[in-house]
Amino acid sequence: MSEITEYLNQKGIAYKQQGGEVIITCPNCHKEKLYINTRSLLYHCFYCETINPESLYAKGHFSQFQESFGDIISITPSYKETPFQIKEEKNFTNLVQRYKFNLKESKAGQKYLYNRGFDENDIERFNLGFVEMKGESWISIPAFEDDVPKFIKYRKITNNTDLKKYERQFGSKTILYNQDVLKKYDEVYIVGGEFDAMMMIKNGYENTVASTSGEGALTSYMYDKLYLKNNFILILDSDPVGQKAARDVWAKRLGVGRCHNITLPKDEDINSFFLKYGAEEFQKYLEKKYQFKVEGVSSLQDVLYDMYRRASEETSVYSLPWPSINRKLGGGVEKKQLITIGGQAGIGKTSGVLQVAYHFATVHSIPVLITCLEMSEIKLATKIIQLHNDLDYQEIDPNHALAYANDMENLPIYFAYSPTITPEIYYNTVKEARNRYGCELFIFDNLQLLVRTGEESDIGKVTKMFKNTIAMGLDVIMCLVSQPRKLNADREPTYDDLKGSSAISQDSDIVLLIHRKRKTDAEGFDAFESKTSVIIDKSRFSSGGRSYLTFIGEKSRFDEE
């Protein structure tokens, strides 16, 4: 059963199957004219396309269809863009023209480009230029949006300093190189860089784009430009970094079913390949395109090859904010894991997981989606502000919200909340957040508010979804907050105390239990101590143990003792 038919059955929507497409009655025109492709997940209504092409149901992606039914939650960034924050986009036309003139006078710049296989016609077509700055010589490479240069990258061609070989013009908008071509084509080549894209275009592959931020960078803006296309052919570097980007960024987020990969010979990029072997040989490689394996049944050879490939890649273990806990976890946590954090109410679980979210966003540059069912987005954002600026809660001034927003505008933290959330809606939202925003850490607070029946079987189904369908199926890290049963204040919890079902501990790869004793001060006020015991009660791949942290309540964070 495909993702499409499973969803339609769940919603009780009648459908017919015709080859690789599913046909339903369009919710807009009420005619049986809406076709959904089960491979690309794209849909179109023949009638709406003709009568009202601007209609949501005229053409779109299946995720838009789900959102229109309320089955994907609206996602909010950690800052909300206001009219005061909308930045004026730069138009670099004057700079582009100046650098083009400079290149006509620079024999060094022309020689560099000729050696890379580009002639005078290419230089003019791609608006290449030359500039001297910071003690180096650079080739300027502009990228256009609606025929306006909104981005300029500089490629260093001398080696007088330790500067990196690429820089970007301040104020450049992060867009796709050659993205205006997307208006014309439904099949798109995605390559590793601007020179590779230029070489493809020069050789007749006009429908080629490249990320202007590196071959592993797929921003939400780029995703929105691409996700309504039918087919993608990925030609990134053949080294482990390039192939990891092809598999774990582009194919994963755009859809394995509509992506084909091409691997060039070792140490060759597209630019060098064409210079060395020519267009005819390149065509032979195109005929060898293949799709990445869809998760499911694997042969032993597949598994061992995957083990070898992963061994050659960068480490896949991600640290938490606390070194003492990392040591007991074998360095940290990994993708495909479900981490459950438990503890009494008011003990600091939400503060702890927000500290994890902030750590992943700042230290690992991994986008995070936070769903909290008992705290508003403003309260959550306030805690992020505290972590970012080392502030007490009382020191935060709501009148400074725009300043906080500007300071944290590149922090990849997102929030999602719905009072009518269900496990199915949460899964759909997670998948959309992974695809559109690149989120790889998901935090849900808390399990018992999602499954209000309290039935052990219901909780077991949901924890299995968190582990198998989300963490394993989507190749992400899932962090789940769970409440324990009512405990004696002085007794330390175990995973058996988590409320609802033994499945919570069984499905979790790691269970962290937070415990703080209560004490009564001289005035008779009863409160938790700041000293915190973190019990690693389960760790599937390490020995576990205990660490001690100090809870700094006024700053909403845990510190090492």
Structural write-up:
With 561 residues, the chain is α/β, with parallel strands linked by helices. It folds into 3 domains: 3-69, Alpha-Beta Complex (DNA Primase, Chain A), CATH 3.90.580.10; 93-286, 3-Layer(aba) Sandwich (Dna Topoisomerase Vi A Subunit, Chain: A, domain 2), CATH 3.40.1360.10; 321-560, Rossmann fold. Helix content is 34%, strand content 23%. A 10-stranded mixed β-sheet has the order 6-20-19-21-22-18-23-26-27-28, sandwiched between helices. Strand 3 and strand 4 form a beta hairpin. The longest helix is centred in the last third of the chain and has 19 residues, at 456-474. The two termini are 52 Å apart.
Q: Report the sheet-strand fraction.
A: 15-25%
Question: For the record, what CATH class of the largest domain applies?
Answer: Alpha Beta
* Percent in helix: 25-40%
Which term fits the overall shape? globular
Number of domains: 3
In what order do the strands lie side by side in the largest sheet?
A: 6-20-19-21-22-18-23-26-27-28
